């Protein structure tokens, strides 16, 4: 039903926010186009490099480090 809703939402011509909940509790292997896409994004060397570049950029100043640390904590809070 969720995929049907996403398909239908594409025809609504309205803004939409989708929250993907990955609670790491899959009973079986992840399958499908979305799982494949997200796996490719997470394992792409460009993704890892951009994360390192952002860390280096924000680490140049005290304010940047605080911002980066805050964003990291927020991100990590979704993984618990």
Description of the structure:
- Helices cover 61% and strands 0% of the residues.
- With 80 residues, it is an all-alpha fold.
- The longest helix has 16 residues, at 62-77.
- The model has no long low-confidence stretch (mean pLDDT 83).
Percent strand equals under 5%
For the secondary structure, the number of strands is: 0
Largest sheet: none
The string of secondary-structure elements, in order, is HHHH
Task: Give the CA-CA distance, first to last residue.
Answer: 26 Å
C-alpha Rg, in Å? Answer: 17 Å
- Low-confidence region ranges: none
Helix count from the secondary structure assignment? 4
Describe what is shown at a glance.
The chain is mainly α and 80 residues long. Helix content is 61%, strand content 0%. Helix 3 (45-58) packs across helix 4 (62-77).
Element layout with pairings:
Layout lengths: L1 H8 L23 H11 L1 H14 L3 H16 L3
Helix pairs in contact: 3-4
Task: Quickly list its features.
80 residues; mainly alpha; 61% helix
